[in-house]
């Protein structure tokens, strides 16, 4: 970025102060001090100290700060988990417009988007949590991030950095990988921003609300600190677009399956889609559940197809499938993040409680609408952070867009599957035509 703007540099602490003050100035409702909107804004700002503690704990090699940072993130995340689960009970949702005009919000959002994308293109600043996370001594086959772009690192027989490749060929392949990852990160953030605006415009009926929600996403310190982490942003983008496409069950299932499967790589859980299936199948129970499950199945096949085509024999395919879907993630050999400071045995009750929560969402609330689908999906994704084996709590982009949409959403009790999801063509043809 310094190649574009002379002596441009903002450290994480300074940006936390600036973004927090801007968030309060733009969105805080001073005439309704104890409104839920204000409490949500305070909660979003409260994530920042945890991110700073993790950054300084890693950069300065201070385990005590690192532990406190993860505990802080877990505490704030726990508060938001309870808030998301209780969101369906909040019937009164008055429209609280931002303090800035629509034109000012649009300009602010575009400016923030430009600076964040320029950071990805030009360099990797040392003053970013993304940088210190990448500097962790993690084996190459366990590099955190987006699976398909780190695919070759997971399987050394097809690695980008092959030992017998000449130096110039290694440099060329690394350049291709770098361009691919940066381009994907930029497209992922653009998809999140456009998805938030489109969900608000099409399903909330308010374009200004979408611009305000997207600007808030770009303004948060997390987005600035982990802009280029593709494994964070791409699954979040797919989840936003799955919500946008909820009226088309097959497309929603395809996007949901791809997004939640990508969350499994490389330190997550390959069976992660099962945790969202009870909620979404319950939403589509009256109409569309079959098409939704077909979409999820197609997504899983698309993930497994590259593994099958590149395997030399069935045994290799099974080994790669087992590694790609992280079947050993319930009891990994080494833990990174919150659970590295605590006994791993305490992680198992958390997993059981999380699974029970996901299954209960199939029954509660009984009548599910778009608002329920939005808030409970964010709650499920947020819940995975509490038992994630690698950097749990830092993968906020998975749920942050859905959380912001939940904060800004109006009353959506009329957005239920029976009235918004179209019937299949075969069922429409079977209906008797009215007499003329």
Account of the protein in words:
The chain is mainly α and 436 residues long. The protein has helices at residues 12-27, 36-59, 63-85, 102-122, 129-134, 151-154, 167-204, 207-219, 221-225, 230-244, 249-262, 273-283, 289-310, 314-324, 347-360, 370-384, 400-408, 417-420, 425-430. The longest helix is centred in the middle third of the chain and has 38 residues, at 167-204.
Average pLDDT? 83
Distance between the termini: 69 Å
Multimeric status of the protein: single chain
How many DSSP H or I helices?
A: 19
- Strand-residue proportion: under 5%
Shape: globular
Low-confidence stretches: 136-163, 265-270
- Sheet/helix structural class: mainly alpha
- Overall strand count: 0
**What order do the SSEs take from the amino end to the carboxyl end, as H and E?**
HHHHHHHHHHHHHHHHHHH
Helix content: 55-70%
The rounded Rg comes to: 22 Å
Summarize the biggest pleated sheet. none
User: Number of domains in the coordinates?
Assistant: 1
